[in-house]
Amino acid sequence: MDPPTYDLPAIQKQPKSYHPLSFHVLALLMPFSVLGVLARLGLSALATYSGQSIFSLAYAQATGCLIMGFCLALKEPFSRYYPPAYIALTTGFCGSLTTFSGWQLDIFKSWLNSSNAPRSALNTVMDGLSKSVFTISLSLASLFFGMHIATEISPYFRAAPPPGRFFRSAATVLAICIYAATIPAYYLLPRDYRHQATSALLFSFPGTLTRYLLSTHLNAVVPSFPLGTYAANSFGTALLGTFHVLQSTGNRPLSSASCTTLQGLSDGYCGCLTTVSTFVAELSALKTTGHKYRYGLTTFLTGQIILVCIFGALLWGGNIVKDQTCVFD
């Protein structure tokens, strides 16, 4: 008598595990940081025009949070396929597309009425409040909408088998080459592009890497308060306030090269070091309402207090002016 036979399930290839500081993970952050900065600058440029109804940064924040929500809802299939790809999309692209420091500076400049618009003090307060509440509301709504879209398509979403060694190696080499290309792009493209984009691209990955290292080492310290993201957003806001001060010294104007470098550090390093998409994702993930309000309000108030101490004190002391005095060639 023949032994019974059984239908054995197909043996699925298990995804390779990666250390958070694996070279494959860090390398893939490079091009996605560059793409995130390009998308943010492009969206801001498209949304900046005479008579605009919505401040231009809102579009980048909404887009980044939408993609973040989509990726969060599909984290399991993304991670099954290639974990570095999930980190690159969320931490790299979405984190660089959205910016906390730019949002904080935009709000602070509204309190100051830096545009010198003919309006009352009440109107100035309302302008700052609207940018604060609108950005948080829009970002959270975009995050949840992205999750909703992912949930709707998840039944039709099939994760591909994990990539082989050749694909992983090729993706890593390509990622490094894309970021390396930002160096010749800075020198070969027209000089006007330097303060507009190419200088920021040089500083994009260092900003993302700093944020990633802070979150990797500090976020687990206090489970109810993501300390790493808080540190990245606070530190980046302090740096942006400092760079803005240096760009606003009316009595000691800087050279064009210095202005370009400061602009690149502001848009690239600070823009990628700070993030709204991760901030609202963490807000939504905290377990209790008290933890959510504590984290959200502490992060927001810290950013504004930092700008008061760095930018406001010098402005009210008469050492700098409201508008940037930098001149680009």
Q: How many domains?
A: 1
Structural class: mainly alpha
Distance between the termini: 90 Å
Q: β content, as a range?
A: under 5%
Largest sheet: none
How many helices does DSSP assign?
A: 13
Radius of gyration (CA) equals 22 Å
Mean pLDDT over the residues: 89
Instruction: Categorize the overall geometry.
Output: globular
Number of strands: 0
Instruction: Indicate the percent of residues in helices.
Output: over 70%
What low-confidence regions span 5 or more consecutive residues with pLDDT below 50?
A: 1-13
Order of helices and strands: HHHHHHHHHHHHH
Descriptive notes:
By secondary structure, the protein is an all-alpha fold. The chain has one domain (23-316). The chain is built from 13 helices and no strands. It has helices spanning 23-46, 57-73, 75-81, 83-97, 100-112, 121-153, 165-180, 182-188, 192-218, 227-246, 256-273, 277-285, 289-316. Helix 1 packs across helix 7 and helix 9 (192-218) packs parallel to helix 11. It is globular and about 60 Å long. The model is unreliable at 1-13 (pLDDT under 50).
